[in-house]
Specification:
The structure is a single chain. This protein is globular. About 50% of the residues lie in helices and about 15% in strands. By secondary structure, the chain is α+β, with helices and mostly antiparallel strands. The protein has three helices and three strands. The protein has a single domain, classed as Orthogonal Bundle (Arc Repressor Mutant, subunit A), CATH 1.10.10. The protein has a three-stranded antiparallel β-sheet with strand order 1-2-3.
Length: about 90
């Protein structure tokens, strides 16, 4: 399911973003960025709708993904499926 970042408590959103930017293997190139810079960059990308928050009901995990990613497409398909279920009720 795709979750609008504006619908998430700011403390929780920051925790999700911090977890995302501090993952092992995250590479920002030769320039070092502070945690604050990384968080601000991801928040800006969320606001510009370049990345999205998705929640996977099956694994009960939240992630930040690009629109072209498989996880985004799966979340979008689940959202569409949920909407069609509501219509048929």
């Amino acid at each position: 399911m795709i979750i609008p970042h504006t619908a998430v408590n700011s403390n929780i959103l920051r925790a999700v973003i911090e977890e995302f930017v501090t993952r092992e293997g995250t590479d920002y190139g030769p320039t070092a960025f502070s945690l604050e810079s990384k968080v601000a960059l991801v928040l800006k990308q969320l606001e510009e709708r370049k990345v999205f928050l998705v929640f996977d009901l099956e694994s009960e995990t939240c992630d930040i993904v690009t629109k072209g990613s498989a996880r985004y497409r799966a979340a979008q398909a689940a959202d569409i499926s949920d909407e069609s279920d509501k219509v048929s009720e």
